[in-house]
Amino acid sequence: MGEIPFNFERRRLTVWLKNHAGNQLVPKGAFEEVLATCSQVRLADQIEPLTEV
Predict the structure, then answer these.
(1) Strands 12-19 and 2-7
(2) What's the total number of domains in the chain?
(3) Fewest C-beta in 10 Å: which of 15, 34, 45, 48?
(4) In whole angstroms, what is the distance from residue 47 CA to residue 18 CA?
(5) For 3-7, which contacts have Cβ atoms below 8 Å and span 24 or more sequence positions?
(6) Cα torsion for 52, 33, 31, 50, to the nearest 10°?
(7) Residue 19's pLDDT is what?
(8) Alpha helices, DSSP H only, in 1-53?
(9) What are the distances in angstroms from CA 23 to CA 30, 39, 52?
(10) What's this model's pTM, rounded to 2 decimal places?
(11) For the CA atoms of the chain, what is the radius of gyration?
(12) Nearest-CA neighbor of 2 among 11, 13, 10?
C-alpha cells in the first residue's frame, strides 16, 4: 500500500501492507534501530511486552 523510504537518519525503511490480518507496518534496516521502535513480541500465539533480559 505504501512505503516510507530508507534514509540515513532513521537507518531503516518501512513498508505498509494490507493483508488478512489488517494493516501492518514492516520495517527493514539496522537491527538496533528497528528494535528501538518495538514494545511487544509475538511468542507462539501470544503477544508479550518486550523487556530486557
Answers:
(1) antiparallel
(2) 1
(3) 45
(4) 20
(5) none
(6) 30
(7) 85
(8) 31-36
(9) 23, 18, 28
(10) 0.63
(11) 13
(12) 13
